[in-house]
Each structure stands twice: as structure tokens, then as C-alpha cells.
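Sequence decides. Consider this:

===
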Amino acid sequence: MKGRARKEAFKPLPHSQSTRRSYFEVPMEVEEPPAKRHRFEEDTSTLFRASSIATSSLEEFMRSQTVAYLSANLKGFIQEVLNFKGSCEVSPARADRAEEIGANFENLINFVQRLADIILTSAEMVPDPLRYVFHCLQESVMDRWPDNDMVRTRVVSSFFFLRLVGPAVIKPRLFHLVTDQPSENAQRSLTLIAKCIQNLANLVEFGAKEPFMGCVNPFIRSNRQKMIQFIDQLSNVPHCPASTVGTGVGVARELATIHRLCFTHLPAIRKKQDGDKSGDLRKLIAVTEMISTREVTHR
């Protein structure tokens, strides 16, 4: 897309193999000034980190598709962390005693390696519709940055790990993986574990910002290639899967989610309507405003 003022956020979410229509259709292009666009094109380390209607829509789709996956792969592991009486604290400022940090590090690495082993062997358990979306993301960014091999990994990890696995580990109750709120000690352990897995997913070692986490870097180096292979395997669904209709996701709930996303990002959508030749954005804005008005009326 060189020379164009627009960037494609990602390809449509799958609905049907025959029609290739969107699972839910939202505008995926964002108009940007040249200076901002150039900065975006040069910096792939923050790819899809910002919140937009595109990223929010994919996040909702991803969560709806992975309820069973998260339960099967994370529920038992998180319960073990919650039952663990020791500590994973490696920060000198937070540890009860400095001499305990060595043992705490061993605890942390044991948990992190176990979670990595679970996740990095689970690609085939992820639903195909989501894997197809990841394939589309990889194809799009490789077209845009053909000389950057790492971007194909980071574009998927920015969704699968940053917006799904990490949040599920840090806040397991919100994902219905536990019933009780974790204790303060367990919550800190979950946070440190998620931090380590996220850095591995980003293919980035800990640096001067958090020097006490440097002890985790050997783990990141030894599992780096496994992460790359996992992301490629996760995205290895090159054809749009059959229809996902009838998988138990309620249509009414889906429509409500779409409306909430559109309402949240309505100012950004309005800014783009002048350049929309099809008129679809005007219709989207009108419907969103009409539903919002009715919601207020019936309260």
C-alpha cells in the first residue's frame, strides 16, 4: 500500500467459505496524515497496540471463539498458582527478604516454563475461524513490511497474547477461569508470569527498565524459536473455514456487541465518512445513533 494515505487494519473476519463475507462488518481503514503514517510504517514494535474499532472488534471475536480453549489450557494451571504457598517475587523492592529472591526466581521460572509448554503446544486447539484471521493478519503485514521477518510474529502476538492469554492469566475471574478473587500473593505471581510470557511473545528480552527481570532472559532466548514456530502454526489456516453459524454464540448478543463498539468509536467513524464513496459509513452512523437514542428513551 505504498503511496496511499490509508492503511488496511486487517482482512474481514470469516463467516462462510462460499461467500467470504465478514463475520461482522466494520470499517477497517483509517485515514492518517503523512507524518503519522510514516511513523506507523517505520515502527512495527507497537503494531495494533492502540485501541480502535478494528482491534476492539477482533478482540471481541477472539474472546467469543476461545472460551473452551482458555478453560482447557489455563484453568488447571491458574488453580495451581492460586494454591501455591510460596512466592514468585523477584523485585528487591517487593521481596520480603533479599535472600529469598533466588528461590522465588526458581518458582517463577518453573511456572513460566510450564505455561509456555502448555500454550506452545496448543495451536491445534484454537478454533479455525480465529486461526484464519491470524493468517490474514500475517499476509497483510508481510505485504507491507516484506523485509521484516519479526512483524509476522508480532502482529499475531499483539492479539493472541496481549489481548487474550495475558489478560486471562492476570484476571482469571473475568474469564470465568476461577470463582474467587486471587490473593495478593497469587495475583502478583500471575502478573509476573504473564509479563514473562508477553515478553517471550514479543521476542523481546527484559532491559534496563526492569533490571530485576533480567534473570528471565535465558528463558526467553531458549524459547524464542518455539514461539515463532507456534505463531506460524497458529496462523496456518490459509482458507476461510466453513460457516460458524450454530456454534452457540447468540445473534442478539453479537449485535449488541457490534453496536457497543460502533458507539464507542463513533467520533472516529464520523471523521471518515466524507471519504466514504459507498455511503456505508453514513448508514452505520445513522443506525448507531438511532439505536442509542432508543436505548435512552426506554431507560
